[in-house]
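Why does residue order matter? Because the sequence determines the fold. Keep that principle in mind as you read this record.
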Amino acid sequence: MKYLFLIPALLLSACAATKSVQDNLTHVDQSQIARPAFMVERKIGIGEDEYLIWERMHQRHAPARLYVGGEEGLGLKLATHDKSSNVAWVPVINETRLSQMKSLYDLKGFDVILINNIDPSTRNWLTARDDILSVRSVAATLPVLNDAAPDLADIPQVHFTGAMDDTETPAHYHAFRQEMGASDCVKYALMPEADETEGWVNLWPKLLKIKPECKTALPTEPVKLNTAPIPPVKMYEK
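Structure:
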């Protein structure tokens, strides 16, 4: 049975110090994206800063999909296309706020989706917590995580790179993968018509069906996934 646990929307004054997404997407813009997906706003403090986050938490004692970051509203847009019971989008998060979110909604753990620019502090909570159930990345700055890669080897993960992205290239993924060392938990997909922010949103429900998982024997050759009418995705499991 599902229960609805919502926090009333918080009013933001014109002089509020609350930060928006990295490219200063306005509160109105965020509302227009999030509210049709029944996501509600909340403010969290990290250090001396306050950040506006959006959540839809419907089921206790279940995991939550946690979307972190995203330029031009990409992270929030992807979150609104996620039909999971528990979904949250945050521009940035830390271990203390994750623990508070987990306690507030009685969550089982977090399926993390990292989008675009990864904050360096992400390494700390990704490697310190035992409730990170999986990791996905979308056009993300994986080099930020290179030093932490060996500690992530046992977490199921899928990494998506846009073939038209001139910033976050397949070479960045392969460097990250090399730093990780031996792992049976990593998948990789190169999306033919995507760049840093475009080409992801409409495809996202299909990409979510690619399940992060650990296997004892992963194929050495690319696995082609049919995402018609978009050209096939080349999936690497190494």
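The chain has one domain: 27-237.
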